[in-house]
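Q: For a teaching session next week I want to show students how multiple molecules come together into a single three-dimensional assembly. I've collected the sequence lines for a complex. Could you give me the predicted structure tokens for the whole thing so I can convert them for display?
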Amino acid sequence: MVAAPMPAARATPSCVIGVDLGGTKLLAGVVGPDQAVRHRVRRQALGLDQARLMAVIVEAVEEVRAAASDEVAAVGFGIPVTLDRRTGTAAYSTHLPLAGVPFAAVMSERLGVPVAVDNDGNCAVLAEARHGAAAGADDVVMLTLGTGIGGGLVLGGQLQRGWIGAGGELGHMVIDFDGPPCQGNCPNRGCLEVMASGSALVREASLRVARRPDTALGHALEEGRELTGPFVTELAHDGDPVARDAMHAIGRALGVGLSSLVNVLNPEVIVIGGGVIAAGEMLLGPARAELQARALLPARDAVRVVPAAFGEQAGLVGAALLARESARAAA
Amino acid sequence: MVAAPMPAARATPSCVIGVDLGGTKLLAGVVGPDQAVRHRVRRQALGLDQARLMAVIVEAVEEVRAAASDEVAAVGFGIPVTLDRRTGTAAYSTHLPLAGVPFAAVMSERLGVPVAVDNDGNCAVLAEARHGAAAGADDVVMLTLGTGIGGGLVLGGQLQRGWIGAGGELGHMVIDFDGPPCQGNCPNRGCLEVMASGSALVREASLRVARRPDTALGHALEEGRELTGPFVTELAHDGDPVARDAMHAIGRALGVGLSSLVNVLNPEVIVIGGGVIAAGEMLLGPARAELQARALLPARDAVRVVPAAFGEQAGLVGAALLARESARAAA
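A: Of course. Below is the structure for the complete assembly, covering every listed component.
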């Protein structure tokens, strides 16, 4: 986390704002002590230049603040960048023009309140570990399966960000060292992200449908429908054999990655979030089976693999938790 | 760690004994506040039944205690088992008949002093992180490359054992999900252990020498010499091309594993220990090159990959550190 110096002393925080800045959209809202989200706003973030993006963020927070009845004590941000704790800036940003920006310092000045900033995966695991699907557990791994795979680690009760804050890139564990090239800025091959993400689901379905064109998926393609993760998931729910096979393949790949995480970290709970978790047990079933077939005892029998509880609000709620902790520490 | 109830209150520890129980041998010695090891004894542990093994351990500790000038305040053990912190017993033991034994409680009663017990990999990383090759670093990964691959994690300054104490099995990260079956009690395939250990070195050399019999390694095999990790390493040092190629292959596999660890944990230092590190840069060179080619920025540029400082005494020194901490906490 990067926390900006507090502009002025304030009363005990009664109200904090959480902001989740994804690669395409922004969600912001007031988060109460019960983790309920109120006054939520949503903005598009894709394709904006840096100045416009920062302006959109400030406007969104101000809109939430105006709607809040209590004074806002702090604002927390989950952002999709690798933060370098040594400099307080975003060292790397795949999706948004934030590289090199001292985000916490800039936002604190623009908003006039204390600001906490962390990677979006770290925010999500914090929300799930403190109040969500892994509430009460001290050793929690979270994987967020979307177009890519993000993640976060709570170990020994603490968020583990690594030395300079670049840890938790769970999508970039290698599970097939001669596998397909990974995505985006990752130079690796056979990463979990390229084997078990929404993109992998689409690739696996495309490969399989060529051999089985006389299926619902094959017919949809003939009619010009674009293959997307949500569409393949929908067809799998409807029983399409190609979509189900593709889902099974990425579930197995996920389970291989889980076996590594269980052997290395021995978590009590692994939380699976992100859009792909809409597949539910079609994804988790094969993943759990592969985990059971591969990981070591006694850790493999001890771990629970569960879907996320906060859904798309995990990043927002976690960012607000960080803001509250940060404001408390500074008070 | 599992700590046994202290039989009686004692003075501040001036002297502790560390014991490293490997799969084949036991090392014990007095460890001073400067981490220097004195009065070291060595015993064979291989092939003993449980009663005899426990007796040999007690005799070795008593011999060291008799040689020590100061009173012994506590004894720490590093043992090659998976401890279950929920029960205080060894949940699983590949090499020694210790499964189900409440080791700390038994030893504390037999020795009449407080006893701390932890996995040998946890002891080794603690020694290296506090006083060895990674002294001063809060985020440290240690891999011990021998016949198998062990490991340990210090993250956020704390030893991370996982929920029930079964974490740190770094040899059992998958790097090739359709790879060769793993060793011992591991049901997985393509684990780092089966791709980058001393056993893997011997396998890679055996595969390669069949195609190149007219080499030093080929001639040695013809003369009836057995292939072992140390022998392949020696020939690699002498420039034998088969041995060097085999070393390069396991170095690359190691580097793939390191890329996963860097992406997931963002350590400041990765310490490589165990017998295979005798190969030095012949192993670390290809491993670092693979890491640089695969891991994400900025974490890959920030990490240092270094050989262990304590050599074969790492487990012993780490066990003594645990004993000292445990005695201090109880005082």
